Amino acid sequence: EDEEIVAEIMGRRFFPDVIAYKAWEGFHFAGHEIRITEATDCYGAVVWPSALVLCYFLETNSKQCNLVDKNVIEIGAGTGLVSIVASLLGAFVTATDLPELLGNLQHNVLQNTKQKCRHQPCVKELSWGIDLEKNFPRSSCHFDYIMATDVVYHHPFLDELLLTFDHLCKDDTVILWAMRFRLENENLFVDRFQTLFDLEMISNFPSLNIALYKAMRKGKMK
């Protein structure tokens, strides 16, 4: 049932005609050609299909989900594709990931947003569960949206991930989260996530095994 829309989403990706000095993939979103440099030796520096699903949603639901002048943070930004698209759609974006990924992330964000965006995005280190109040104090950090793609997979930091969602999320913050279900870890984390947040599936792509969710703090979903 989802084959047509999945084909459209995946059709946003293109590849260079000739081999370049640095390997890159291209994407068409938000009226721009976006070039993403990947690092194939690092799990977090590859564009996964869940990122394309979220980017497609942001672009095709720009009235329902108006990002203009909104404060957005992406956790586990990886190559930065989602952060770049959110920036091109008018948001003020903070793209975050582990320190070893920040160089490539900064390169991609700068290359694809400089002099193209209403607000220049920033790149910041965020190791889940570590120094959250120091680096993102509750008193001064307010995010309209938290975005995440494929942050739940086979890793031992699910407690820290949930703590990070909890710390960054205010009563009116909307979480947009795309996830590919691979292992039982995903289902277990969703169960734990729902102890703190109301969760609504807004898109489902069985052929990709990917679901896109909207979440807010319990009792705050409109």
UniProtKB/TrEMBL annotation:
It holds the Pfam family Methyltransf_16. GO terms for molecular function: methyltransferase activity. Keywords: Methyltransferase, S-adenosyl-L-methionine, Transferase. InterPro entries: Methyltransf_16, SAM-dependent_MTases_sf. Gene3D superfamilies: Vaccinia Virus protein VP39. It comes from the Eukaryota. The keyword S-adenosyl-L-methionine applies. GO terms for biological process: methylation. The keyword Glycosyltransferase does not apply. PANTHER family: HEPATOCELLULAR CARCINOMA-ASSOCIATED ANTIGEN (PTHR14614), METHYLTRANSFERASE-LIKE PROTEIN 21E PSEUDOGENE-RELATED (PTHR14614:SF1). This is MT21E methyltransferase. It comes from Leucopsar rothschildi (Bali myna).
